[in-house]
Amino acid sequence: MLQKKICLLGAFGVGKTSLVRRFVDTIFSDAYLTTVGVKIDKKLLTVGSEQMALILWDIAGEDDIAAVRVSYLRGAAGYLLVIDGTRPETLDTAVSIQGRVDAEIGSVPFVALLNKADLEEDWTISMERIAQLEAAGWQFRRTSAKTGAAVEETFQELAALLAR
Amino acid sequence: MNARLSLAATHAPGEPSDEEQKARLAALLLELARCVDPSVAATLPSRLEADPRLDAMRRVLLERERVALAQLQEKFDDPKQLADAVGSVLPAAFALAAAQDDRLGLAISPTVERATQASIQKNPGRMVDILYPVMGPAIRKAIAETLEGSLQSLNQALKHSLSWRGLKWRIEAWRTGSSFAEVVLKHTAVFRVDHVFLIHRKTGLLLAHVARDDATTRDPQLVSAMLSAIQDFVRDSFDESASGGTSSGGIDSLRLGDLLLWCEEGPSAFLAAVIHGTPPAMLRTRLGETLGSVHDQWRGALEEFSGDTTPFEAAQPLLRLCLLSQAAETHRKVSPLMWLIPLLLLGALGWWVGQRIIERRHVDAYVSSLQDQPGIVVMNAERRDGKWLVSGLRDPLAAQPEALLAKTDLDPARIVGRWEPYQALHPAIVLKRLQATLDPPPTVILAQDASGIRASGNAPQRWMEKARAFVQTLPAGAPKVDLSALKDVQDPDYLRLRDAIQAQLIHFDFSMPRPAADQETKLDTVAGYMRELVQVARDQGFPVKVTIVGHADATGKDTSNLALSVGRAEVVRSMLRARGVDPSVLAVRGAGPLEPLRPGASEDELSMNRRVSFGVSTGD
């Protein structure tokens, strides 16, 4: 079986954990997030004819106090950057995280998730900025933890990226 | 450079117009070359001597180079300056050489070894100082592990040395020739390795996992990633490497109640063993060896690992060797069913005891009913081989024990009687014995009374005689048998025949010993009676005696009369004998004239007295 380590990153409160909760298998409680700063989930996928297990490292949200532990990023084959569409500052955090990840483990595939797509009318995020980042090679997906929209597809895409 | 110079030299003659000029230029260049490489001077002719102007020109043209060359020369010639120059480039040179391949390392390693050796010989203390940060923690760790192991065995040894189990182990140690500590350890080091995870260090991905068949596991991939995360967490949070610990850092062992997690770290992967109980230090060694083997065999696969765990499936047998265990010999949890067994046993025991008590009661009742019987003495009643053995003395005429047994609730097959025959003197038994032996006629009643046994009714004379004789033979102390109330009765046939015979008289003529001629018929009749009497006596079993009494009349002398009377009796006997009467019952007696029928002296009276009379009696 093929296994890949995937990190789930993003600013505090962007809904990383709730975003994937419905789509993954886990045996650990959310308490790990607050104590150890990471919680492990698993997503089984089929890419082509092969089974792939994405081992998701849901890393505690970044805020002013706690920076992401870089040691948790080590060995990641890819990552998901979660951004709250209603809070523009989370996009800045995502950019900063992306920069640090790039410096720490090199260039690995990632997908940026614009979460809370169900509240798209409340979005305050700059579409211009999104377009700039897309031009720089970022891939954005609009997801919703509430409806589950596009989450499964995102996993599938990321898996396809990694299998290449 | 040589080649180019020689080329110039060969082309020079091909252009005759400037030949001189070219030759000079060539010589100049040659000179330049000589300045750069002095060895050229040795092989090519110098033109300096040929043309002194050249020398001057050279000085003008090459002033700066000459100064630079001189400085270089000076640097090479002065060892201090040379060392300075080499020293400044050496680190960079080493770095470059090491980056290219291993040759530099190979080349300098003997020198380094020799240098280290020399340094240790010269000043061992310095090397100790250098190595202390590395060796110190390692030694501490080894000592701690050893101490932990020995403390554990010491505790157990103390705990078990005085118990019954300890005694058993001492015997085992003595028998097997091993030390007591070894035996204690063998029986008490209870542990079980449930899971072994081989985890890629960098990614935290699970490379291989083995588990005991009965061990439950949740998703091992998740567990291994979480373990890896926790390792990172601990490493980051406590920054062990910075505080002087070993460079590997991380969690070495983690205990949660009975559950123990041991991690063995390698460069590319680590082993995590989930253990129940307290494992011996040997397990740590085994984990280390296994991890070493994994690194040896899968070095390439570990370095290039990018998520494909297929190559590591082959490592499972190796990991399986770490699934060690030591079973506890005691403290097995008793299932509730196990309690049922003693309860059932207890119930069965109670039932059995109850049965025995009931049986005992029945036996006691049976024995006492036997004791109540005259002629039975019970000496012993005991259980033997699942049966009751009742033994004692029993008069053969006493009641049958089997008949008494049938009246009880006991199973006759479970009771065995063993009776010694004896003769009882109990009145009831003596009564029975009298009845059995004497066979009394229906007219006789034998009964037990306060003083003994009393016979009443009437019986024939001969039976009474038999009864008297038997009573005489009874042993002393036997109950008294009173026969005095019995009345004598005679056989009617006997009485009739006796009377008939005694009524007959055989008459004789005067002084004649033979009966008168007319007496023949009478004799026949008497003989007939007698034969019948003998037959009756024989049938009835009593003796009978007929006395033939001869008489004479009172005339003549007494002596001759006596002889005549005897003679008459003898004659009659002979005549009766001749008529078939058994002579053994016949006796003769002569009465002479002494028992006359008539006392008178008349002829009739005298004739009446000349006779033979008969007396019949029983007995001897």
TrEMBL record, chain A:
> PROSITE patterns this protein is in?
RAB
Q: Which keywords describe this protein according to UniProt? A: GTP-binding, Nucleotide-binding
Does the keyword Membrane feature in the UniProt annotation? no
**InterPro entries the UniProt entry points to:** P-loop_NTPase, Rab, Small_GTP-bd, Small_GTPase
Q: Which Pfam families match?
A: Ras
**Is Nucleus found in the keyword set?**
no
The source's superkingdom equals Bacteria
- Entries under PANTHER family matching the protein: RAS-RELATED PROTEIN RAB
Protein name per the record: Rab family GTPase
